[in-house]
Backbone:
């Protein structure tokens, strides 16, 4: 005899579940008997399988238990009854209904908005089909122990990666998308400006920018190829297709060349961080700028093979640069391409958040607001329990089980939430354009299956959260005492309600405090003196004839009345690139992270920067070497006693220090002022900077426009003020500040509504008490104090809890900025007093109404 | 007569219960049918038929003994009722009549 193995449990449980209980025992006996017999004849697997088969075949009408017998309740009737009772309650107590509706629907509306925003953020850069295999090569630079991470790599790297590392399908070199290189494109006499970049030849195979004409294979084969977007095609040729093979001339600074259109791609979608209008072959870029391993002048993307493990590849590529350039301190690693948008911040070579923090913050706020709304609902439902207690008592006497009462109250909450969701959806639909302008996106609100399902789940979830406490509370009444009209609140219930209100207010106060600080900080960075006068500076691109002869263009520009000074610069004034390989006499084997501005004569004067030593760039001194001007921070870091006249080397070229300027903020205020230098290099100046006079701003601008039309016929005069660029740096802070203000407003509104509802009820219950007190001679003041004492205490408790929490939050947020406001206690005090006043205001009207009541009216009816 | 209407499988089960007289419960009935008719009978089909016959009043059932192999579950013994007997006789009569009415097969 074989060893006995006990039968599998699942089939027997299944049988027990569906089998008619009257038949179950003997059928199970039969099955077990047969199982044991089979076990002896055959093997366990076989016996087990047969048992399952038998059970499944038993699943037929004659055997399955009847549903009708076990549940005799008329469910439909019950539903109908519950629905009618709920509707009557809503109609009868319109104030509570409205308070709940407004509270819940605004809460849900905020949650939907945040959901829309978050899901839009999450989709960014994830539209590439090969998204799972695409990586960006990042480099960690170790400078004396501090690790800086950026994505600049030598342009020779991609080819080496492809050749030496197995598992890499494509390695693509490209120019950094953040450069936003503005080219001038022309066909015959029509010029347009477009953002272009250089990319390696597998670019369109790895990334999903669909080619509409031509092929991704051949598109970047030739050095003189250009691939343009449909938008550009439409602008230049008036059609989207049939243009492959035509010639376009492009121009970038001093570089210019004709190119043949080899393909057309669909314009880059909104949810791509990388926005460009056309691409040129990367090989051309390498030819022009060289392929030195010491010069990290490009970025690299790789696409891995299906089976390749990115950890392994990361290890293999880590030392690639060091191998080829012994002086380098760069360690390479891979970051998933789509992750870069949300996880773009690095600390010590590790991902340390980025935009994802903002998303988490907003999810937290959405949660807070929903919670506040739910608490309102719970509080009002339990506080007004006395209105329902007769109903509960009678139902219980007639024989309702607790379970059916819980079900009734839960379905009432669900109905409430359903109404709120409908109102919220209408609200979202109406307010979406406004929301889009707030966040600067174009989010569409589409109701698809996924949304409907998640909304349904949301309704049920929220209904259960908000409804379960009232449901269990209300259904727990003892029929005898409630029918005798004695509702004795337990102490714990009393505390729960108070606690919930306190919690609500805590959240609101945290929101108020945070908003005040964020507002202050945003104001602060907008107005902080930067070390130069940022007003009245305008910037525009160097185009057309200005490209031919910069000196005469700037000279003529200076003749325009109202123009104080003018110069030119290559980089974005507020976000200059760093250079590597900056050495000076005395820098033995250390290099520093330093930013470089390529500028023209008069730049320092145009900006209004203060010179502390030496001189500015001047045409009076013609020197063979290029000249540079350092800032004080750079001098300090280089530890030079007398920097003037020293020779420094920048990427191999020698330059002479002619002056030192006072530190100014050349980056966003997130960073401390770092070392930088101005480099007089007139070859690639791309942006013209003009300072106009304060007094006649608009006239000067129109004169400049006329001048420009004359000088550069066919080009449009598109200028921006430096202040606009400056605000852009803090766009996300500015947006947070505005959005947070709205959400804080919503949070406060809901809390106040809750307090209002609660107070209305308390006052209603205590009218008799007030009447009696009045008769006995109590004065108005003491009664106001009596009624408001409770609320005052609750709010004070909330303040005490909220202050340390928000202090922590704010400290954390401000630490993002190198230049931040002081955390002042005044703001906390302001928020505290403000919320207390708000609470008093909310309850004040009701209290006064009650206190002034004529005792005879409230004591008459019993 | 509609009263005695039986399906083919019902008839087989009913007859088997009579054959196994006194020892007719789920497992033995199943074995016997499989033995005689050389076809596989699922527990599900058998049990539904047994219950149906019981409901029609042709079979009666009593709980009986148990043993370890059955995990303590009792056997449910089936016996034929008077009505069941009538049904069998009726079926047999009908069949006989049909057979008698049948012409010689070789002539067709």
Residues:
């Amino acid at each position: 005899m074989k060893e006995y193995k006990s039968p599998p449990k699942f089939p027997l449980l299944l049988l027990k579940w569906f089998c008619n209980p009257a038949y179950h025992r003997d059928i199970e006996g039969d099955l077990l008997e047969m199982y044991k017999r089979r076990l002896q004849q055959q093997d366990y697997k076989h016996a087990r399988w047969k048992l399952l088969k038998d059970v499944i075949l038993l699943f037929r009408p004659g055997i399955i238990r009847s549903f009708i017998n076990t549940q005799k309740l008329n469910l439909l009737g019950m539903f109908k009854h519950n629905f009618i009772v709920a509707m009557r309650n809503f109609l009868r107590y319109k104030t509570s209904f409205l308070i709940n509706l407004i509270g819940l629907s605004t809460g849900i509306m905020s949650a939907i908005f945040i959901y829309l925003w978050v899901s839009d953020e999450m989709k960014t850069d994830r539209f590439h089909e090969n998204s799972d295999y695409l990586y960006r090569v990042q480099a960690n630079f170790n400078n004396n122990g501090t690790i800086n991470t950026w994505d600049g790599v030598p342009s020779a790297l991609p080819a080496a990666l492809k050749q030496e590392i197995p598992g890499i399908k494509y390695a693509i070199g490209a120019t950094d998308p953040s450069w936003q290189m503005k080219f001038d494109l022309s066909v015959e006499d029509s010029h347009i400006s477009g953002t272009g970049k250089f990319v390696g030849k597998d670019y369109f195979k790895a990334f999903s920018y669909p080619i509409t004409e031509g092929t991704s294979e051949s598109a970047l084969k030739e050095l003189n190829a250009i691939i343009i977007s449909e938008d550009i095609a439409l602008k230049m040729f008036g059609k989207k297709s049939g243009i492959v093979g035509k010639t376009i001339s492009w121009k970038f600074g001093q570089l210019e060349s004709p190119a043949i259109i080899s393909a057309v791609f669909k314009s880059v979608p909104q949810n791509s961080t990388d926005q460009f209008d056309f691409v040129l072959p990367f090989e051309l870029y390498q030819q022009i700028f060289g392929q030195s391993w010491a010069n990290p002048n490009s970025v690299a993307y790789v696409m891995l093979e299906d089976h390749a493990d990115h950890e392994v590849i990361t290890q293999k590529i880590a030392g690639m640069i060091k191998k080829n350039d012994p002086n380098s301190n760069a360690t390479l690693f891979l970051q998933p391409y789509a992750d870069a948008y949300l996880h773009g911040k690095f600390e010590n070579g590790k991902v340390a958040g980025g935009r994802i923090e903002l998303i988490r913050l907003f999810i937290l706020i959405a949660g807070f607001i929903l919670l506040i709304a739910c608490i309102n609902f719970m509080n009002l439902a339990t506080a007004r329990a006395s209105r329902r207690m007769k109903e509960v008592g009678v139902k219980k006497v007639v024989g309702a089980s607790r379970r059916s009462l819980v079900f009734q109250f839960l379905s009432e909450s669900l109905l409430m939430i359903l109404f709120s969701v409908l109102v919220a959806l209408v609200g979202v639909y109406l307010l979406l354009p406004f929301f889009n302008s707030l966040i600067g996106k174009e989010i569409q609100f589409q109701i698809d299956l996924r949304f409907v399902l998640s909304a349904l789940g949301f309704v049920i979830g929220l209904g259960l959260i908000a409804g379960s406490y009232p449901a269990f509370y209300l259904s727990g009444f003892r029929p005898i005492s409630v029918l005798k009209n004695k509702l004795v609140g337990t102490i714990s219930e009393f505390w729960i309600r108070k606690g919930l209100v306190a919690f609500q207010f805590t959240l609101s106060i945290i929101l108020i405090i945070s908003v005040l600080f964020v507002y202050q900080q945003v104001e602060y960075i907008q107005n902080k003196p930067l070390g130069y006068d940022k007003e009245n500076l305008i910037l525009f691109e160097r185009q057309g004839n200005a490209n031919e002869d910069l000196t005469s263009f700037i000279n003529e520009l200076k003749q325009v009345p109202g123009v104080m000074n003018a110069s030119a610069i290559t980089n974005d004034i507020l976000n200059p690139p760093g250079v590597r390989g900056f050495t000076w006499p005395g820098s033995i084997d250390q290099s520093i992270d330093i930013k470089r501005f390529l500028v023209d004569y008069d730049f320092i004067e145009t900006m209004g920067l203060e010179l502390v030593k030496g001189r500015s760039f001047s045409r009076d001194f013609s020197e063979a070497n290029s000249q540079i001007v350092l800032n004080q921070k750079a001098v300090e870091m280089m530890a030079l006693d007398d920097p003037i006249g020293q020779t420094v080397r920048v990427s191999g070229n020698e330059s002479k220090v002619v002056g030192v300027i006072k530190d100014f903020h050349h980056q966003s205020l997130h960073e401390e002022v770092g070392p930088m230098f101005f480099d007089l290099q007139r070859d690639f100046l791309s942006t013209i900077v003009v300072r106009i006079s304060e007094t006649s701003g608009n006239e000067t601008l129109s004169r400049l426009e006329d001048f420009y039309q004359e000088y550069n016929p066919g080009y449009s005069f598109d200028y921006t003020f430096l202040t606009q660029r400056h605000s852009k740096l803090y766009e996300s802070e500015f947006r947070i500040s505005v959005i947070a203000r709205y959400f804080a407003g919503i949070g406060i509104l809901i809390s106040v509504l809750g307090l209002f509802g609660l107070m209305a009820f308390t006052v209603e219950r205590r009218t008799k008490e007030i009447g009696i007190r009045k008769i006995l001679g109590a004065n108005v003041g003491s009664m106001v104090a009596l009624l408001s004492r409770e609320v005052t205490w609750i709010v004070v408790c909330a303040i005490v809890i909220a202050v340390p929490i928000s202090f922590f939050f704010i400290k954390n947020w401000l630490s993002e900025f190198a230049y931040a406001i002081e955390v002042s206690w005044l703001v906390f005090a302001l928020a505290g007093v403000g919320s207390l006043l708000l609470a008093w205001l909310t309850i004040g009207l009701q209290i006064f109404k009650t206190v002034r009541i004529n005792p005879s009216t409230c004591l008459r009816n019993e | 007569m509609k009263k005695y209407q039986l399906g083919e499988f019902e008839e087989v089960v009913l007859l088997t219960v009579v054959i196994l007289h006194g020892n007719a419960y789920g497992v033995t009935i199943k074995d016997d049918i499989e033995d005689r008719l050389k076809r596989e009978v699922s527990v599900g089909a058998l049990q539904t038929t047994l219950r149906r016959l019981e409901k029609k009043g042709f079979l009666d059932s009593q709980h009986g003994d148990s043993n370890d192999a059955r995990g303590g579950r009792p056997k449910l013994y089936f016996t034929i009722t008077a009505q069941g007997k009538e049904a069998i006789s009726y079926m047999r009569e009908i069949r006989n009549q049909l057979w008698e009415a049948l012409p010689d097969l070789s002539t067709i």
